[in-house]
Amino acid sequence: xxxxxxxxxxxxxxxxxxxxxxxxxxxxxxxxxxxxxxxxxxxxxxxxxxxxxxxxxxxxxxxxxxxxxxxxxxxxxxxxxxxxxxxxxxxxxxxxxxxxxxxxxxxxxxxxxxxxxxxxxxxxxxxxxxxxxxxxxxxxxxxxxxxxxxxxxxxxxxxxxxxxxxxxxxxxxxxxxxxxxxxxxxxxxxxxxxxxxxxxxxxxxxxxxxxxxxxxxxxxxxxxxxxxxxxxxxxxxxxxxxxxxxxxxxxxxxxxxxxxxxxxxxxxxxxxxxxxxxxxxxxxxxxxxxxxxxxxxxxxxxxxxxxxxxxxxxxxxxxxxxx
Length: 323
Fold this sequence. Notes:
The structure is a single chain. By secondary structure, the protein is of the alpha+beta class. Helix content is 36%, strand content 21%. The protein has twelve helices and 13 strands. Helix 1 (24-40) crosses helix 12. The protein is globular, with a radius of gyration of 20 Å.
């Protein structure tokens, strides 16, 4: 990359996991899976829970690379990536700009729409507009435009935290207030009834490839929420998904388009819905997919016949100073 001098080090691979986001516990579980995998592969590994001593720790350890397993703010939003670039430490996953794009759902959906990628119709506004500019008066217009049920979610949050479904006009305001407790910018999205699919992408640019499509089937829940994602027994994961071959191919093509459109590299997971008319809709892109024992990526790797360890090795091999 022009202007960068990559410092070469024979130090350990540092796995960054934990942090201070609302997804801390999930990140610790992902990090533990990555640490175990890397050690099985013969790597010297050091697990680091980022805090105010992170820079000093990284300077002391002089890692050969950082495997970023941080979920939520501070990890998926480009924050730690900016710091790693300053310290000239190659890192896994997407660069700063791609992380910022994928972390902000309003921003990523705008990019998808501009690139012709199907995503449910939406609108958005900020906490300031709601509290200071009378945005609540526009809620009936939003309901008229997008219909009910209406999905309300924080623009910048992961693991389905803060997402609510308003089925009646009177529920929209409370769903908004709940979402605003997670972020000061909210997304209101047309409800799409359908099957929850996910496609893991490895690599970058034209060399990126898709792992088999995985379907998540939550038990007794409206959608694939936080509890369904991380509580064993609440969701069945079908890998590969039981869908027609042409639908799986289309889902993979759309996911690859999303990965490239946002400029992602290393790996990502694209979440989609398959509606009752067999149309596919992109919900979001996760720049740092979950890697816990209940996560979708390990299931996709298993379905591909490559296994989790091989995926982790490939992601590490792509570690660089982000683009």
